[in-house]
Amino acid sequence: MILPVILSGGAGTRLWPLSRELYPKQLLPLVGASTMLQDTVARLHGIESLAAPMIICNEEHRFMVAEQLRMIDIDPSAIILEPVGRNTAPAVAIAALQATPREDDPILLVLPADHVIKDRTVFRTAVANGAQLAEEGRLVTFGIVPDAPETGYGYIRSGAELSHSGLQVAEFVEKPDLETAQKYLADGRYFWNSGMFMFKASVYLRQLEKFNPEMLSACRDAFDSMSSDLDFLRLGKESFAACPKDSIDYAVMEKTDKAAVIPLAAGWSDVGSWSSLREVNEQDGNGNVIHGDVFSTGSNDCYLHADSKLVAAIGLQDIVVVETADAVLVAGKDSVQDVKSVVEWLKQEGRDESLLHRRVNRPWGTFESVDQGERFQVKRIVVNPGASLSLQRHQHRAEHWVVVSGVARVTCGDEVRMMNVDESTYIPVGAVHRLENPGDVPLEIIEVQSGGYLGEDDIERFEDNFGR
After folding, report:
1. 138-154 pLDDT per residue, tens
2. C-alpha to C-alpha distance for 66 and 442, rounded to whole angstroms
3. Distance (Å, rounded) from C-alpha 401 to C-alpha 426?
């Protein structure tokens, strides 16, 4: 049995301003109509002896992950929530611990949720070969056949031939300079390190115990203190936070004598920058990738993205322009690896643009800040059919609600009333209240907040369908 383990815990800072800490790139539709997480799950279709996928994700993303899987009719075997990020080796250890009680000792197929693989047939063939090697006790990785002297990836040097199209791993190599990368390309024995793996759950745990027993012990503690929360499994926070950080490569693969690599030429990309995102998207006759309301003339080899406003690009060459409601990125194509420095600056300044978009996803729907100033804020709130916000109150603000579309059920103190389009209500400071959508179409309201403090943390919850 092959058990897919989808790692969906990253932040994708190099694709800011589209990717934010609370809405990262794997949850965005960056290549086509589906999100990258949905594409990762969809490409598994057709693999034999496949179990329902297990998802490892940040607890802040749990409702978006669950909803995106529901939208493509996927019922995961588990969604395990990381209270803090500890890199890939601990995450996969948790997945292996979750899997080992099964009688079949499944083969884990470890896949990051934010990769592009265009040729699914070639990918499935490689997985089938990887499963054969994993059955023999190998720890398998997939090496991307390089088509350029890439300096942004680590490399794998291959050794002797194995069965099932596999090769022994001679060594893992750090990201090279350009001259070294050119030598690797000419040599033919080097592959890009994809970060995808296959191995039996028990084999991985034995190897981790051999090379990093402290990590495995901390993971066992976190696993043993795991609790159920709605449709999710929450790891013990203190135990998992005490776990050492490390990747599978450093923790196990570089140390074991059981490592094997399967060459993969399937149109792979980790979409690690705006330039790589341009390469995997359809380009126009001038080499431009254009999304949204964009006017372009005399521009070549650019990535032009508009979310909320018209973007006019005139006479640009090798430029990335990404517009969102609250931020605009303009960068030379050769400088896009430095985008993460913008995110670091935003965090140092305590600005929200690194965390979330103006439109914020919640398990019940979305809200978007329309305008704000001293002592007031205006929001557009959309509540999904059948959903409700928590029963709550605020100590520092009052709220006025106007229904724009749909039907609302409003609780304010002891009163419960129905509201239709164009009707409004007032929620005083300190009043216990709740907004619900009892209808079968989205409910949209305009909320005007007024008060001395309008922060999102001014919420005292009494009842909540989502366990917050």
Report:
1. 999 999 999 999 998 99
2. 19
3. 6
Q: How far apart are CA 394 and CA 459, in angstroms?
A: 5
116: three-class secondary structure by DSSP:
strand
Mean per-residue pLDDT for 439-443?
97
Residues of 183-217 as b/e, b for ≥16 C-beta within 10 angstroms?
ebeeeeebbbbbbbbbbbbebbbbbbeebbeebbe
Check if the beta carbon of residue 95 is closer than 8 Å to that of residue 5.
yes
Q: What is the rounded CA–CA span in Å between residue 280 and residue 32?
A: 10
142: nearest Cα among 114, 116, 111 = 111
Query: CA-CA distance, 80 to 74, in Å (whole number)?
Result: 15
Contact 390, 412 (CB under 8 A): no
Determine contact, residues 15/339, Cβ cutoff 8 Å.
Answer: yes
H or E stretch at 289: strand 289-291
Q: How many CB atoms lie within 10 A of CB 155?
A: 25
pTM for the complete prediction? 0.89
DSSP class of residue 338 equals: G
